[in-house]
Design goal:
Layout lengths: L1 H32 L7 E7 L3 E22 L4 E6 L6 E2 L4 E5 L2 H36 L5 H33 L2 E3 L4 E3 L9 E2 L5 E18 H13 L2 E2 L7 E5 L10 E6 L9 E8 L11 E18 L4 E3 L2 E7 L5 E5 L1 E6 L2 E6 L6 E5 L10 E5 L33
Parallel strand pairs: 1-21
Antiparallel strand pairs: 1-20, 2-9, 2-14, 3-5, 3-8, 4-7, 5-6, 7-9, 9-13, 10-14, 11-12, 11-14, 12-13, 14-19, 15-16, 16-17, 18-19
Helix pairs in contact: 2-3
Length: 412
């Protein structure tokens, strides 16, 4: 019986050792095989090339009337009528206010009567001189009588001229009681109501703002101007001929105003209080869609960045270290590269530094990449250029549009 149990135990031990050998052999094979190779990721890429790129500079501006006129009373008196509707468009020469004319008509009548009186005196003096002169020639009257007659005639003539001036002044004052607009434009509200007494201390009655053309003012910082001048001197930046820089504006609702304008003025002096230079553009506004005081976004067109490197919007990644792009090395490995992003141009970012001509940049499939990962580069499908800058994207800071000291886009 014991020998039978020992035989069964030996059989179980043999089976256990055989199973253990199989397990050990399997582990040895797995260790010999090693870790699995990482998968190869297919990515869409483009080749970096140098080319000239038109660029658009963007600023915050404010509209201003090209001619805003203060409508003031030029004589003292009571305001009798308001002859326009507040806030409407008025024509050049249109009557806006009328003051009480009765005292001015009375003053004109008095001046005209004084003129008639002085003219009568002049007539008498001339007739008297005509009688005295031949008598004095015959020594029938003294030289003093002749001199007195001549003096009286000259004094009477001067008095007539003074009376004529008084009549002209009275007519002017009467004309000033009807107040008209010197320009066609948008009227403001009446600052004085009918019945108010108007004098030199409260003579402002309203404003009229000319709307066509309209001005748009924006500013450049001193650093932007210096950067612009340096880039232009090095040939990195090209500008159109003087007066050819176009301007378009974007309204508060995001729509682009239909009419483009041009830069017409660049201030040569630096504003020490704001640290900026003033730039002015002029745009047609025949329908009056733009009103003075609106805040708008100003886009300055016509500049060109020479021999620039551009990459699509989606290839630029914002990270803790700043902006970067994924590139493909010669051995088809993914590499993350820090770049300096510049202006926005036709749906692409201009890269100031970090890339060279001939580099391979990943456009599609960069989400799954890690540094050193193997990739399979394929040519990316071209996309139509976008004119909309992504909100809060890299490189959003505007670049200078024109140098005030010698602004190529301005016309004197």
């Amino acid at each position: 019986m014991a020998s039978g149990l020992e035989s069964i135990g030996r059989q179980y031990a043999f089976v256990f050792l055989a199973a253990l050998a199989v397990v050990v052999a399997g582990c040895g094979k797995q260790e010999a095989k090693g870790p699995a190779a990482p998968p190869v990721t297919e990515v869409g890429v483009i080749k970096v090339v140098l080319h000239d790129v038109p660029i658009t500079y963007e600023f915050v501006g404010q509209t201003e009337s090209s001619q805003q006129v203060e409508i003031r009373a030029r004589v003292n008196g009571f305001l009798e009528q308001r002859l326009y509707t507040e806030g409407t468009m008025v024509k050049a020469g249109q009557l806006l206010f009328r003051m009480d004319q009765k005292p001015f008509k009375a003053a004109l009548d008095a001046a005209q009567a004084e003129l008639a009186q002085q003219q009568a005196r002049l007539t008498t003096a001339r007739q008297n001189l005509a009688r005295v002169r031949p008598l004095a020639a015959k020594n029938a009257l003294s030289q003093k009588d002749l001199d007195d007659s001549v003096g009286n005639e000259q004094a009477a003539a001067a008095a007539v001229e003074q009376a004529k001036a008084n009549v002209i002044n009275a007519k002017l004052n009467l004309d000033y009681t009807t107040i008209s607009s010197p320009v066609a434009g948008l009227s403001s509200y009446a600052k004085k109501q009918v019945g108010s007494y108007i004098d030199t201390t409260n003579s402002l009655l309203t404003y009229v703002a000319k709307l066509d053309p309209i001005w748009v003012n924006f500013s450049l910082s001193e650093n932007e101007v210096l950067q612009y001048q340096s880039q232009q001197a090095s040939g990195e930046l090209k500008l159109p001929p003087r007066g050819a820089m176009e301007v378009e504006i974007v309204l508060a609702d995001g729509t682009t105003y239909a009419n483009r304008g041009r830069i017409t003025f660049a201030d040569a002096s630096f504003n020490s209080q704001t640290g900026t230079y003033l730039i002015r553009a002029e745009l047609p506004n025949t329908e009056g869609a733009l009103r003075p005081g609106q805040f708008v976004r100003v886009r300055v067109l016509g500049a060109e960045r020479t021999r620039a490197i551009t990459v699509p919007q989606e290839s630029v990644v914002q990270g803790q270290r700043g902006q970067s792009v994924w590139t493909v090395s010669k051995d088809n490995k993914a590499e993350s590269r820090i770049v300096d992003v510049g202006e926005w141009a036709q749906g692409n970012w201009i890269i100031r530094s970090g890339l060279r001509e001939g580099d391979t940049v990943v456009v599609d499939g960069s989400v799954r990449l890690v540094p050193g990962a193997p990739v399979k580069p394929v040519a990316a499908t071209p996309r139509p250029p976008s004119t909309q800058r992504p909100p809060g994207g890299p490189g959003a800071a505007p670049a200078p549009a024109a140098a005030p000291a010698s602004a190529p886009g301005a016309t004197s």
